[in-house]
């Protein structure tokens, strides 16, 4: 049974209880300065990124030079274009969605991006893509790692986004067992300092995804408790992850890393903030900081990254800018009291206002 428009309770970012490791020392780059009219600059940058994606689209509606590339790049580009406001009835986007309908996906990232695209497209198509959303959701839930088995954290991040994003949850019936499973996976894979690591080093993108994923899974798994009793006590592990993000967000963002990796970190940081409705980390306005960095990294051709990374990196960059625009309305909202059992309502209201009022 579908429940469109349902606002789902989740845990809020709160005060930090546990100490974490000191901020990681990285070769620093100066962070970008904001242009005088950030909103106008963002709109211009989005338009250039859209033009680049259209220029790389294949005749059949897909993106990518090979089937394995197209599986991920097509839903990535489609979701990004939908996210910045392109109508699913636009001929170029309609052709991309048709290609996705006719082409199955196998990877976690591809399925997650497809679910995000299906849910976004269904805003204005009356459930046209509902069966495809259900199919990809079912496949993702079945692919969740078994207890005690190895966990690919990058895949878990995308599985979490595809299954637990507010837009997907609001358009599909998902068993609570899936939320409990993801909560367990994020908890058992977390490091002692509160972060999640890749190849032995702290990873900003994974920790942003893990912070959101653990809190989101906890909120969804305990939804009935929120509704009956108001707020429930936040997870200590989630607070420790938030503390790690506070200490390491800016130092790691200043590290000298490839553009695609930098965009990926910003994507997950902004995703975490946008889904939770909390747009500051250690007093830093994450949306505006991310926008400045994204604007600085765009190439003259309108793309981010290079070679095979350019389409997925450009798609992620556009998603960052779109979610940053959602955050403008409530960036300076502060409330020191108890948000009770609907802390996610502000994030949902912001998203609705972005598309229907602003």
Descriptive overview:
- The protein has 358 residues and is an all-alpha fold.
- It has a single domain (38-356), classed as Alpha/alpha barrel (Glycosyltransferase), CATH 1.50.10.20.
- It contains 15 helices and four strands.
- The chain has helices at residues 38-55, 67-83, 91-102, 108-121, 130-142, 153-164, 166-169, 176-189, 204-221, 223-229, 236-253, 259-276, 286-297, 310-328, 345-356; strands at 197-198, 201-202, 280-281, 284-285.
- The chain has a two-stranded antiparallel ribbon. Strands 3-4 form a two-stranded antiparallel sheet.
- The longest helix has 19 residues, at 310-328.
- The radius of gyration is 19 Å and the shape is globular.
Which short descriptors sum up this protein?
Glycosyltransferase; disordered N terminus; two-stranded antiparallel sheet; two-stranded antiparallel ribbon; single chain; mainly alpha; 15 helices; 58% helix; 358 residues
- Report how far apart the termini are: 31 Å
Please tell me the total number of domains: 1
CATH class group: Mainly Alpha
Average pLDDT confidence is 80
The biggest beta sheet reads: 2 strands, antiparallel
Structural class: mainly alpha
Strand proportion, as a percent range, falls in under 5%
Brief summary:
By secondary structure, the chain is mostly helical. 58% of the residues lie in helices and 2% in strands.
